[in-house]
Specification:
Helices cover 16% and strands 32% of the residues. By secondary structure, it is an alpha+beta fold. The protein has one domain. The protein has a 7-stranded antiparallel beta sheet with strand order 3-4-15-14-16-12-13, covered by helices on one side. Strands 5-19-6-17-18 form a 5-stranded antiparallel beta sheet. It has a 5-stranded antiparallel beta sheet with strand order 8-7-11-9-10. The longest helix has 16 residues. The chain is globular, with a radius of gyration of 20 Å.
Length: 277
């Protein structure tokens, strides 16, 4: 009788501790070292609502991150600044109200901007160039050379340094945004970025791997430039990765009802599902 009671109790405990279907689970290592997420993430994550999500929650060196994967077979990417002829949205909330969630895989802030929310660097939306390439010297993260451009046309997406883009890209892409600094350049960390510097903020970035997939990452806790850069280099294996912004970084993921709010933003990158057509 006591054995039966014990088995029932253990069964009840197991049921209480079981993770809901599809909930992201942070992997821990029993040797006390930092967990190492797989560089080959699932292209979709099914959440409890049975809605597919392109994003997953992971932990890299004790820092929680959200990693969103855009696959050119399944997704298309575009930029959005504001309603046609009107001022920038300045928030993902305003954008979501205007756009609606149908067909949206996720959206994220995508590049630096001035006090009015206008991009300070190269910006192309719907094949229309709204801002030319910025090669000026200056202060701040944007001007920590090399900076770079994330751009693409018809499912071919790239991250290049600004100099590389200027020298080799002759046709206007369907979308593009300039930001800085680069986190990873040709498989190496940006020369001015230390291994794990003292500056810690909520940050987001983008990189494209050898299969042409775009990896968008936003930290869920303050993170250094160095740690974010190493995640792209060591785990995601992206030869080039571009910092998008910090402190204002936000994500909209309709599949999980995540809609970040915060300081006003500027350019927005929108990843849409092709199967919604």
């Amino acid at each position: 009788m006591r054995v039966a009671v014990l088995l029932i109790a253990l069964g009840s405990l197991a049921a209480c501790e079981q993770q809901p279907a599809g909930e992201p689970v942070a992997r821990a290592r029993i040797d006390g070292q930092a967990p190492s997420p797989s560089p080959e993430p699932s292209e979709t994550e099914t959440v409890a609502s049975s809605v597919e999500s392109a994003c997953r929650s992971i932990i890299f060196e004790d820092t929680p991150l959200t990693h969103c994967l855009a696959n050119p077979v399944r997704h298309r990417i575009g930029m959005d600044l504001g309603p046609s002829g009107e001022a920038p949205y300045r928030s993902l909330t305003a954008f979501s109200r205007q756009r609606g969630e149908n067909g949206v895989a996720f959206a994220m802030n995508a590049g630096m901007y001035d006090d009015e929310g206008e991009p300070i660097g190269y910006f192309v939306e719907g094949s229309e160039r709204l801002k030319t390439l910025n090669t000026a010297e200056g202060e701040g993260n944007f001007h920590l050379k090399p900076n770079g451009v994330f751009y693409g046309t018809a499912g071919e997406w790239h991250v290049r340094t600004t100099e590389d883009f200027l020298a080799n890209v002759t046709e206007r892409p369907e979308f593009g945004t300039q930001s800085g600094p680069m986190l990873v350049v040709d498989g190496k960390l940006h020369p001015e970025i230390t291994q794990d510097g003292p500056s810690r903020l909520i940050r987001n970035a983008v990189g494209v791997d050898g299969q042409g997939r775009a990896h968008f990452v936003i930290s869920n806790a303050p993170i250094s430039f160095g740690k974010l850069a190493r995640f792209y280099r060591d785990e995601l294996k992206t030869p080039n990765a571009l910092f998008l912004d910090g402190n204002v970084s936000q994500l909209w993921n309709p599949a999980t009802d995540r809609l970040d709010t915060g300081a006003p933003i500027g350019p927005i990158v929108v990843v849409e599902k092709k199967d919604s057509e």
